[in-house]
Amino acid sequence: MEPRDLEGKNVLLGVTGCIAAYKALEVVSRLRKRGGSVSVAMTESATRFVAPLSFRTISDSPVYLDMFAEPNRWNVEHIALAEWADLMVVAPATGNIMAKAANGIADDYLSTLLLAFPGPKLLAPAMNTHMWQNPATRRNTRQLIEDGYGIVEPEVGRLASGAVGPGRFPDPATVVDEISSFAHSDDTLAGTTVLITAGPTREYFDPVRFLSNPSTGKMGYALARAVRERGARTILVSGPVELTPPRGVEFIPVVSAEEMRRVCLDHWCEVDILMMSAAVADARPVHYMQDKGKKDADALLGDVIPTPDILRELGAQKGDRLIVGFAAETDREAAAENARKKLRAKGADLIALNFVGGDESAFGSEENRIVLISQSSEEELPRAHKIQVARALVNRVVRTLRGAES
Ligand code: CTP
User: What's the gap in Å between 360 CA and the centre of ligand 1?
Assistant: First the structure.
């Protein structure tokens, strides 16, 4: 399920001529599923790869191609389009359009739109490795960044030529996540370091078996993205999950609670804000068996002891940091009271209470409903996609930092 986080946003999408142009169709489709309105402008060479009709159908809007197709209207039209758009994206962007944009050349519809559009602009380059690494493209990329363009770095992978290297257009879902992040970005947390823990921990009792829980890490990864969008240095410490870390975050994978604790302590002096969303396993086996234990053994698992309570330990050395803890509760009656106890016991400023177990479990779901509990307040964030909940939670953190809320 896609989040409806581009509701009300007008996206002007430029498509240029390269083999990845067909992937822009899925970009349009995903932008619309996320609530965005999309208008597409194609270069002449893009139309050699994909028919404009495909974009017209999938965007449900006219496709802009030719500056001089309607001689009486074009001048008004490209300015009107630039005024309509909230953001402009070129995906895929060839080396050629990058060179034009870096130099202010406007010799066709799309390059003219780029020059005429004063709002935020994002390019998702895709090209052959040698073209991407060419000093001219390197120079143009630096210039574009200096001019305020966002760049979605291409991936390293197998290219159309069969060669392997940087230049590959990322998966359209990744590109759309980057577009959404770009649309939500500002610098309110610039200069701040935020440490986020995510996912479960695993406490192995032999080489192949462990104690853990069903956390998938989605909430923590969404938080990392939401924090990164606000310009923070973002450190994501994650237990084993199936997710790709958001771009631009420092990623530290861990397995056990003890490892997670170590990494958090190692970084503690750099941290301004902690968001402890990991579902740390509560217990670990006392003994680790080098060989796989046999199920008819007297005690397959052996004795267990509690894992270190990382949040409590960090909370005790809080200083002037802001700490957000989480509470996973199954008992809805006692949930708020339990969360408040955790707030006090662990030295947190805020506890994000989520419900686990049952039909609306936060574990594994794309959506979440959390209640934010502080010393003096209780605020329910409506059930929404985890990225939207994460952004709302980060907004609350920003308000708290500004002293607007405690
Ligand atoms: N936490 C932690 N270290 C642990 C257990 C939990 O840092 N060993 C953190 C979690 O990341 C979360 C908060 O403490 O931010 C509350 O976790 P939760 O699982 O809800 O509560 P517990 O403290 O484990 O208590 P209980 O299982 O009794 O509800």
Answer: 20
Considering the four listed CATH numbers 3.40.50.1950, 3.90.1260.10, 3.30.750.24, 3.40.50.720, the one that applies to the domain covering 10-183 is 3.40.50.1950
Q: How far apart are CA 277 and CA 397, in angstroms?
A: 14
Q: Which residue ranges does the chain devote to CATH 3.40.50.10300?
A: 193-401
pLDDT tens track for 258-303? 999 999 999 999 999 999 999 999 999 999 989 887 777 667 788 9
Tokens of 176: 């759309």
Q: What is the DSSP letter of 200?
A: B
Q: How far is residue 67's CA from residue 73's CA, in Å, rounded to a whole number?
A: 9
The model's confidence at residue 73, banded by pLDDT at 50, 70 and 90, is very low
Residues of the chain with CATH 3.40.50.1950: 10-183
Tell me the per-residue pLDDT of 146-161, one tens digit each, with 9 for 90 and over: 999 999 999 999 888 8
Q: Which residues pair with 233 in a beta bridge?
A: 193
**Residues carrying an active site annotation:** 213
Q: Is 211 a pocket residue for ligand 1 (Cβ < 6 Å)? A: no
Q: Is 362 in the pocket of ligand 1 (CB under 6 A)?
A: no
- Determine the topology of domain 193-401 in CATH: Rossmann fold (3.40.50)
Residue 26 and residue 32: Cα distance in Å, rounded? 10
Task: Please provide the average confidence, as pLDDT, over all residues in the chain.
Answer: 94
Site to probe by mutation for ligand 1, drawn from 326, 337, 349 as the one with most ligand atoms within 8 Å of Cβ, is 326
